[in-house]
Amino acid sequence: MSDAVNTLLIELETELKRQQLWSAVPPDAAAMASTLPFCCDTLLLEQWLQFVFLPRLYAMLDAQLALPNKIGILPIAEQAFSADSARFSRLLAIIGRIDNTLSAAV
Fold first, then answer.
1. Angle at CA 82, nearest 5°, toward 77 and 9?
2. Of residues 99, 39, 44, 95, the one with CA closest to residue 69
3. Contact predicate 91/13, CB 8 Å
4. Which pTM was predicted?
5. DSSP 31-96
6. Residue ranges of the domains in the chain?
7. 22-56 pLDDT, tens per residue?
8. Is residue 97 scored above 90 in pLDDT?
9. Distance (Å, rounded) from C-alpha 21 to C-alpha 10?
């Protein structure tokens, strides 16, 4: 399963870049210190994906740690990208596959 998750993470990163949602500048430390789910009070979802989610999952894969399950990113992503869901349909599909793959590992 780790190979499948790694492939999906690479797809997510690639799609964020393709959609020009990838940032060259990380958020400041205060924004990253949020304790709310998805840092929803301080970050845009694409920032959370880039600077929190992807690094954490890559690190967990590298360390061969158990991956989270039932993470439920898709509902928040559908809300975050609802203004242009057609444009972001591929991004949403990738996030949905990540959710499903991690949930299937339970």
1. 30
2. 99
3. no
4. 0.93
5. HHT--SGGGTTTS-HHHHIIIIIHHHHHHHHHTTPPPP----HHHHHHHHTGGGTTTTHHHHHHHH
6. 1-23+62-106
7. 999 999 999 999 999 999 999 999 999 999 999 99
8. yes
9. 15
